[in-house]
Design a protein that fits this description.
alpha+beta; five-stranded mixed β-barrel; four-stranded antiparallel sheet; 14 strands; 48% helix; elongated
Length: 586
């Protein structure tokens, strides 16, 4: 007698469903624990549900450059503003154009919303300029010699200042050192001395720069005018600081104020600009525990920065400083002691907020246009709350209809479907809560709609599997083999269906902006969770239920009654009749 062939075990690990259930249980406990450890027991809410601030900005072009206000520049400004507010960790901020000249910024309530409002409309024209002269931010009394025809008025801002001017500017230079900021290299550059003739930047106020008497007179007049502006400059008010910053160009020698008004400067032409900075981030100096800003330059920017810092390192204070000028105001004026290369760090009187703000501006670049704040309004969550309640009521009605259908048509199988929906809901809620502090995800009304739509997608997966099991029972198989034979066919259908849904969500997320992305993100997330729940929960639970008497015996309320399903007689192997060996029997 031939030994029976050893068949393969049932697909899906029929004997070990407990492993999958233990895995998903551990995941649920870990996510729930992480939610409470992160002190985020509820998902973050978007501006339509939580309220916030809505800012209207109007684009302003420089005189004679009205054509700069175009669709390309407006779209670029929107992208930069989005990166800035996201860089500050503001969740679900919306930035969009309105008409030809306006940009609307909606910022939900949050710890960083105030910072976002300060930075969102900042033009961020960033230049690294050499410091020629520095003084306290109040108006400087004019010396008696300034009224004469001597060249002393041009000496102060000049790159080649006389001994008298040097002595007059050296006194207030101590004010600059009270900032305590310096720039050092993360990677030290070559220490080759720079030629002395190139130690100071060329300034348009230097009389020696011209070879003709007419040009020299023009430069002296410009220098005198600049000196008057510098002495009269009052940095104590925001209006005067903004006025001093208007109309400055990269190639000009300019006057500028410290952002807090504590100091004023004469700055040479820009040697490096913001586009030369590749990235910047705030960090803590491990040696002294102080906040610093770490910068990395592009290839071309690194060369320019190396050349500039090499020149400045040969100078005496304050001309060994370079000013980081943002929109014409000096954010920082660190001193330089060596030529630096591609990486550098700014250290000094930073706290966490000021370091992060400077790094954010350095990283995300300059807006192509200037913007003026037209209006700031506070958005309440009253309307959004009403819509949310209406949405939740609609979701509850839809869920109730799904439950009624499952109970009426699938009876006992509805219990497994409802347990699966509950597990899917727990996973969705905990992950949404954790994604708030992790990536800034905020739940808005479209996202709620996506979660409601996901109920139907998840229920559809259960129905596909249940119907495959029923098909096997109609073929005359008992429940336990039917559960295992139905799984491979149902699995393929579920994966194809969820792949199509996820692909649609991904395309929608990529090609849309604003709140619609919330709908697409939630739909994609719940589609992935549907696969996880069906594989790790629904299938193992169905395997365990098939071993119980209630389901295995085909109870009328189990939803798997062979009589109600019109099952065929059980499949039996036909017996082979052996040919008789006795001729008489034949």
């Amino acid at each position: 007698m031939a030994a029976p062939k050893k068949g393969r075990g049932p697909a899906g690990g029929q004997g070990r469903p407990g492993r999958s259930l233990a895995l998903i249980l551990i995941a649920m406990v870990a996510l729930t624990g992480g939610m409470f450890l992160a002190d985020q027991p509820t998902p973050r809410l978007g501006i339509d549900l939580a309220g916030g601030t809505s800012i209207t900005l109007e684009a302003k072009a420089e005189p004679g450059q009205e054509s700069a206000i175009n669709k390309t520049n407006m779209d670029t400004a929107v992208q930069i503003m989005e990166r800035r507010v996201n860089g500050l960790g503001v969740s679900e901020a919306e930035v969009q154009t309105q008409g030809d000249r306006n940009i609307i910024v909606n910022i939900p309530k949050g710890t960083n919303s105030a910072q976002a409002r300060e930075q969102v409309g900042t033009t961020a024209k960033l230049y690294f300029r050499p410091v020629l002269t520095v003084a306290q931010g109040t108006p400087t009394p004019a010396p008696s010699a300034s009224s004469s025809d001597k060249a002393s008025p041009s000496a102060k801002p000049s790159a080649s200042a006389s001994d008298k001017a040097s002595s007059s500017s050296a006194k207030p230079s101590a004010t600059a050192t009270t900032q305590g900021r310096a720039v050092t290299g993360a990677l030290k550059a070559d220490s080759t001395p720079t030629p002395k003739a190139s130690t100071t930047p060329k300034a348009s106020t230097t009389p020696k720069a011209s070879s003709t008497p007419t040009a020299s007179a023009e430069e002296q007049a410009a220098a005198a005018d600049l000196q008057k502006k510098f002495e009269a400059l009052d940095c104590s008010s925001k209006a005067s600081r903004s006025k001093a910053a208007q109309g400055t160009k990269a190639t000009d020698t300019v006057v500028a104020c410290e952002q807090d008004g504590s100091a004023k400067y004469v700055l040479g032409p820009a040697e490096v600009d913001g586009t030369d900075v590749d990235s910047a981030k705030a960090a803590i100096n491990q040696q002294n525990g102080q906040w610093i800003v770490q910068m990395e330059f592009t290839g071309g920017g690194a060369k320019k920065f190396h050349t500039t810092t090499g020149k400045l390192a040969q100078q005496q204070s304050p001309q060994n400083q370079f000013a980081i000028a943002l929109d014409g105001e000096v954010v920082s004026a660190p001193s330089v002691s060596e030529a630096l290369s591609a990486n550098a760090e700014i250290s000094g009187s930073f706290d966490q907020q000021s370091a992060e703000e400077l790094a954010n501006v350095l990283s995300y670049g300059a807006l192509p246009l200037s913007f003026q704040e037209q209006s700031v309004t506070t958005v309440t969550a009253a309307l959004g709350g009403e819509q949310l309640r209406a949405g939740l009521i609609a979701g509850a009605i839809g869920l109730a209809l799904v439950v009624i259908y499952l109970v009426a048509y699938y009876r006992g199988l509805a219990f497994i479907a409802l347990l699966s929906l509950l597990v899917s809901g727990i996973l969705t809620y905990t992950i949404m809560s954790l994604l708030g502090p992790a990536i800034g995800f905020a739940l808005n009304l479209p996202a709620v709609c996506g979660a409601i739509v996901a109920i139907g997608i998840t229920a559809d997966s259960f129905i596909v599997y249940f119907e495959r099991i029923r098909d096997e029972i109609r073929e005359g198989r008992t429940l336990r083999p039917a559960v295992e034979r139905a799984w491979p066919r149902a699995r393929r259908t579920i994966l194809v269906s969820d792949f199509v849904s996820f692909l649609a969500a991904a395309v929608l997320f990529v090609v849309t902006v604003g709140k619609v992305q919330g709908f697409a993100f939630t739909l994609g997330l719940t589609t992935l969770l549907d696969v996880v729940v069906v594989f790790l929960f629904t299938k193992p639970v169905m395997t365990l239920m098939a071993r119980t008497k209630f389901f295995a015996s085909g109870h009328p309320w189990s939803g798997l009654d062979p009589k109600r399903l019109g099952a065929k007689p059980p499949l039996r192997r036909s017996r082979r009749v052996n040919a008789p060996t006795d001729p008489k029997e034949a």
